Each structure stands twice: as structure tokens, then as C-alpha cells.
Amino acid sequence: MSVRVVIVDDQGMVRTGFGVLLNAQPDIEVVGEAVNGAEGLRVIAELRPDVVLMDVRMPVMDGLAATRALLSEPGDAERPKVLMLTTFDLDDYVYEALRAGASGFLLKDASAGELAEAVRVVAAGDALLSPSITRRLIAEFSRLGAPRAPSRERLEALTERETEVLALVARGLSNGEIAAELVVAEQTVKTHFGRILMKLGLRDRPQAIVYAYEVGLVRPGD
């Protein structure tokens, strides 16, 4: 069964180019497109795609506002995954996009292979958060200063090892790197992280990183 995609971007060349690249994949189908966030919400409601490629900057309604509106609707299981389309100057948007519920970021100059793999990753329920994006996120928390969510009560539900894994995730390490750091199997790290998400009521890796910094479990520069 193909992954159904809607592309929301005000640049026609981007929509066309990404559409051609994705439709060339045997397991991905672009079912619709829109030129701004408001039109995107209407198209998404009608077509119910699995993944939305959402540009950050658009007229009428930008990608952040559209993502908030889309992912604040009830019925979490039916919501599509949102992959934000960005250029390199996205520092101002990383934090807010993750808080809005985006599953990751994709640079507009991504190769065909990177584009297709990104769609598959988020469609499978994983997050696409590269080390460079994580560094930008950490820099944003450094700029913001003190933690924005003082309560650490939910952290008490985690075991010592789970807390350790969450801290390493928040520093931008991959599951493989965490496994090497803790001298355990990568599958063990995945199991720990799955339990972390369940206990904390979080959706994915970006939300976990945001949470860890907001409660002060880790701080920029750690």
C-alpha cells in the first residue's frame, strides 16, 4: 500500500519537482497539493494523506500555523505526519515547529533518495531530526534561557536508565550512538525509548528533545 502524500508549498517548481521525484517511487503517491496553509488544510481534510510536506513560509497561512491547526484536531491516529520543508535559515522556526507537532525537517535541496526516505521514515511513525537540526534546537534553548516548563513530576516515572537514554537523545545522539555509549544493543535502546514516550505521553523524538530541555533534564552546553 502506497504512502499518500500532499505537498503544501507556494513555489510551483518545488511542488512539481517533489511530485515528480516522489511519484517515481513504487511505494509513494502524491495525491494532492496546495499553495498555502489554508488551502492545504482543506486539501488534507478531503484527501486524508499519510504524510504532508509543509513549507514553513507561505502567504495567507504559513506552515507553522497550518501545522498547529492540523495537529490540534482530535483523533490523533487519523492525523497525517508533517514534514516541514525548509531552507538553511530555519533557526527561528525549529522550536515552534516541533512544539506544533511536526515529525521532522527536510531541506528543499534534498536528493531524490533523501526525499523518499524522509517520507518513508515519518510515515512509519519515526521522526526525522538530523544532527544539524538538533544543534539548531539546542541553540534555540540556549537563547531562550531558563526552562519553560518547571514541572519535572513526569520524569519520576522513568527508571534511571530511561532517564539516561532520554538525556542522550536530547543531546542529539542516534540510537546506535546511544547503544555504543551505554554498551548495550541498539534494540535495547529502542525499547527504552519506546517506554519513555509511553510514560511521558510524548509522540516522537522531537517532542522528547523539547521536553528534556524544557524541564531542565539537559541544558545547552552539557
SSE layout and pairing:
Layout: E1 3-8, H1 12-23, E2 28-34, H2 37-47, E3 51-55, H3 63-71, E4 81-86, H4 91-100, E5 104-107, H5 112-123, H6 131-144, H7 160-170, H8 175-182, H9 186-200, H10 205-214
Parallel strand pairs: 1-2, 1-3, 3-4, 4-5
Strand content: 5-15%
Question: What is the N-to-C order of secondary-structure elements (H for helix, E for strand)?
Answer: EHEHEHEHEHHHHHH
- Form type: globular
- CATH architecture title of the largest domain: 3-Layer(aba) Sandwich
Could you give the order of strands across the largest sheet? 2-1-3-4-5
Distance between the termini: 44 Å
Number of helices: 10
The CATH class assignment of the largest domain is: Alpha Beta
Q: Write the CATH fold name of the largest domain.
A: Rossmann fold
The biggest beta sheet is recorded as:
5 strands, parallel
Low-pLDDT ranges: none
Helix content: 40-55%
Write out key terms for the chains shown.
globular; alpha/beta; 10 helices; 2 domains; 222 residues; Rossmann fold; Arc Repressor Mutant, subunit A; five-stranded parallel β-sheet
Report on this model:
The structure is a single chain. By secondary structure, this protein is α/β, with parallel strands linked by helices. The protein folds into 2 domains: 3-128, Response regulator (Rossmann fold, 3-Layer(aba) Sandwich), CATH 3.40.50.2300; 147-214, Winged helix-like DNA-binding domain superfamily/Winged helix DNA-binding domain (Arc Repressor Mutant, subunit A, Orthogonal Bundle). 50% of the residues lie in helices and 13% in strands. It contains 10 helices and 5 strands; from the N terminus they run βαβαβαβαβαααααα. The protein has helices at 12-23, 37-47, 63-71, 91-100, 112-123, 131-144, 160-170, 175-182, 186-200, 205-214; strands at 3-8, 28-34, 51-55, 81-86, 104-107. Strands 2-1-3-4-5 form a 5-stranded parallel beta sheet, with helices on both faces. Helix 3 (63-71) packs parallel to helix 4 (91-100), helix 7 packs across helix 10 and helix 8 packs across helix 9. The mean pLDDT is 83.
